[in-house]
Specification:
With about 190 residues, the chain is an all-alpha fold. The chain has 7 helices and no strands. It is rod-shaped.
Length: about 190
């Protein structure tokens, strides 16, 4: 593959990045070709040593999305980062998707339990409206206690959610660096 074709493919794969970032990356790879040509290598040999433009773009985009997710811990940015890392290889589908779904399941379950406990006094009142003969004061007191536990659990879930998002971002960063390092050793 020639230098021009390599750079065109890389630019097309990096279209999601801003023009400034894309130009900076393309300049770096153009320098790789210049240094390689000075050493007497052919454009095809340099392109072969660099690897596939689509794989390079996947690595760059994964790193970009993980960096954005680190700065902005919104659910959308974390999901984009996870999908970008999964896109690096099939191996990552198993290694990243499992922990990401596990973290999402823990967060979802914690919030569901908290909200259910918070709603328990309301459910006792609704039960009293439909079955006034079955109302027990004990049920009301237990539901108020559960509501308190739900409030505490909700506060704990705020911290747990933030901590798990940060941990997932750290895991994604580690995974990206592992894939990048592994690909460098393969070439």
């Amino acid at each position: 593959m020639t230098k021009d074709k390599f750079l065109q493919q890389l630019e097309a794969e990096l279209k999601r990045l801003s023009p400034v970032e894309r130009a900076d990356i393309l300049l770096d790879y153009e320098e790789h070709f210049l240094f390689g040509l000075e050493e007497g290598k052919s454009e095809e040999a340099i392109a072969g040593a660099l690897g596939s433009p689509s794989q390079i773009a996947k690595e760059i985009l994964a790193g970009y999305h993980v960096k954005r997710a680190s700065a902005n811990l919104s659910a959308e940015s974390v999901i984009r980062a996870a999908w970008a890392v999964i896109g690096l290889s099939f191996f990552n589908l198993v290694i990243v998707l499992g922990p990401a779904l596990g973290v999402a399941g823990v967060i979802l379950a914690g919030w569901a339990v908290s909200l259910t406990f918070l709603a328990s006094p309301l459910l006792v009142v609704v039960e009293w409206l439909f079955y006034p003969d079955g109302f027990m004061l004990f049920d009301l007191f237990v539901s108020i206690g559960m509501c308190g536990i739900g409030i505490l659990l909700g506060m704990v879930m705020l911290y747990v959610t933030k901590a798990l998002k940060k941990a997932l971002i750290g895991y994604l960063k580690y995974n990206v660096s592992l894939v990048k390092g592994g690909l460098r050793h393969d070439n």
